[in-house]
Amino acid sequence: EVTKDWNGADQIAIRSPRGASVRVCLHGGQVVSWRNDRGEELLFTSSKAIFKPPRATRGGIPICFPQFGNCGTLEQHGFARNKIWTIDEEAPPLNYGDNNNNKASVDLLLKPSEDDLKCWPHCFELRLRVSLSMDGDLSLISRVRNVNGKPFSFAFAYHTHLSVSDISEVRIEGLETLDYLDNLSQRERFTEQGDAITFESEVDRVYVGSPGVIAVLDHEKKRTFIVRKEGLPDIVVWNPWEKKSKTMADFGDDEYKQMLCVDAAAVERAITLKPGEEWTGKLELSAVPSTNCSDH
Ligand code: TA6
Questions:
Q1: How many whole angstroms separate alpha carbon 175 and alpha carbon 194?
Q2: Which sites bind substrate (predicted)?
Q3: Ligand 1 centre from 69 Cα, in Å?
Q4: pTM
Q5: Which of 76, 126, 206, 265 would staple 157 via disulfide (CB 3.0–4.6 Å)?
Q6: Is 259 in the pocket of ligand 1 (CB under 6 A)?
Q7: Could you please report the per-residue DSSP string of 62-95?
Q8: Does residue 261 line the site of ligand 1, with CB under 6 A?
Q9: Interface ipTM
Q10: Where residue 236 sits, what CATH number does that domain have?
C-alpha cells in the first residue's frame, strides 16, 4: 500500500496478516518504521528528525552507499540515502500466501543520474528488496551490479537505528573476541577483550570480520534483536552519548538513551566489482522476547 509521508515523498507500507508492519520511503530507500504484531515500533527515529531532502531522516535504516563515513570524496555515508529511488518494475513483489510465500516484499531501484555520474563516474544499479515475514522478521537484500562500466569499488552499510529502552541496560553478544577500528581514535585497531559489549559512554566502532549472527539484548524491554547478515563482514556499533548528541540539530539531547546503531556493513575492505559482476548484501532482523536476557 503506497502512502505519502509528511513531505509528500512516497512511502510504501507492508502489513503482515498478524499485524506487523514495515514502511519504506522512496526518498533514500530508507526503512523508516518496523513494528511488531503488537504495533510496537522497533526502530528509533529522532523526535527532532528533519525530513528535508536531500538530507536523510535521523533514524530507521538509511542505506550508506557507495561510501561509509566521511573518508572519501562524497558526502557523509555516500549519496544513496539522499536520492529518490524508484519502484523496481522488473521485480515482481512477493505477497503473503502467493505460491505459499511466508513473506511480502517491495523492491526499489537506484540508478545514477547524470549528476551522480559526475561525482561518482560508475555505471551501477542498486536494487533493494525489503521483506516482512509472517513472523514479523524484517529483511533487506541489496544487490549492486556493475553495468558494464569499468571496475569500481564501494563501501556499504545498513545504518540501523534500533529502539532500546535504556542504553545502559543494553548489551551486545557475538562480538566478544573481534578486532575493531575505533572511530574515536583515528580508526586505531583494538581487540575486544571483554565478554558482552555494554555502554557507558560514546561508542563508534567498526567490528571487523564479525560472525553472521549477533544479539542485542534490551534488558528492560526483555527483548532481544537478532541480527543476521550475509555478504557484510563488519558490524558498526554507534551511540553518540550525551556530549555528541548535543552537537546534532536533528537529535534530542537525551535521545541517545533510547537508541543504538548496529550496522551490518562492508567498511574495512571495499567491495570491488568487475563489469557485469553483482554483489549481494543481506540483513535479517528479528525482535524476540527474551524471557531471561542471558539465554543466548
Ligand atoms: O555510525 C557510525 C557513524 O559514522 C558515526 O561516526 C556517526 O557519524 C554516525 O555514523 C551518524 O552519521 P549520520 O551521517 O547518519 O549523522
A1: 9
A2: 58, 76, 81
A3: 7
A4: 0.95
A5: 265
A6: no
A7: -EE-S--TTSSSSSTT-SGGGSB-EE-TTSPPP-
A8: yes
A9: 0.97
A10: 2.70.98.10
Ligand 1 contact via 163 beta carbon (within 6 Å): no
Find out whether 76 is annotated in a ligand binding site.
Answer: yes
Q: How many domains does the chain have?
A: 1
pLDDT per residue rounded down to tens, the chain (296 residues): 777 665 667 899 999 999 999 999 999 999 999 999 999 999 999 999 988 777 889 999 999 999 999 988 899 999 999 999 999 999 888 889 888 789 999 999 999 999 889 999 999 999 999 999 999 999 999 999 999 889 999 999 999 999 999 999 999 999 999 999 999 999 999 998 888 999 999 999 999 998 879 999 998 888 999 999 999 999 999 999 999 999 999 999 999 999 999 999 999 999 999 999 999 999 999 999 986 545 44
Residue 81 assigned ligand-binding role: yes
Closest-lying ligand 1 atom to the alpha carbon of residue 68:
4
Which residues span the domain enclosing 281?
2-295
CB 77 near ligand 1, within 6 Å: yes
Give CA angle at 278 (150, 234), nearest 5°.
105
